Amino acid sequence: MLPQTDYRHQARTLALQALYELDCTDHPVGEVLEARLSAEGVPATARGLAERLVRGVLAHREALDTLIHRYAPEWPLAQLAIIDRNILRIAIYEMGASDGTPINVAIHEAIELAKTFGAENTPRFINGVLGALAAREDELQRTFAPPSRL
Question: Which of 17, 52, 48, 23 is nearest to 35 (CA)?
Fold first, then answer.
């Protein structure tokens, strides 16, 4: 089991694994989450964050994919490696829709996931896309802001 201070990294890793499986299969979300999050030694804090990340990414997938397409136009979404696509989705979700994660932390964590799970060039690619997007924090906030009431 990871020390308590590492539960966020563990949660992101679990979320990435679940999102990868969901992207590759037609398994039900609940079953995937149960299989990933019920492992022995996963603290409740990591389980809760991983589930929030997975459900948040799935709920905002269209907006996330639009941003990925906008900031990585040379890579059609369908041609991106599944790992790369889901690392970007998690990071962008945390940068714009999730409360409390500083942008630099989301980028750093995404690069760490890319080093662990991605190809040789994945960390540089992830950093480039997220760095360009971070410079447009206003666009992120508008994308994930709740609709205003008239």
Answer: 17
Q: Residues 110, 88: contact at Cβ < 8 Å?
A: yes
Q: What is the pTM of this model?
A: 0.89
pLDDT at residue 3, rounded to an integer:
43
The whole-angstrom separation of Cα 115 and Cα 113 is 5
Q: Mapping DSSP to helix (H, G, I), strand (E, B) and coil, where does residue 111 land?
A: helix
Pick one of 3.90.550.10, 3.60.20.10, 1.10.940.10, 2.60.300.12 as the CATH number of 60-150. 1.10.940.10
Q: Is the pLDDT of residue 5 over 70?
A: no
- For residues 48 and 10, the answer to whether their CB atoms sit within 8 Å is no
Residue 37: predicted pLDDT: 86
**108-145: burial string, b at 16+ Cβ within 10 Å, e else:** ebbbbbbeebbeeebbebbbebbeebbeeeeebeebbe
99-125: per-residue pLDDT in tens?
678 899 999 999 999 999 999 999 999
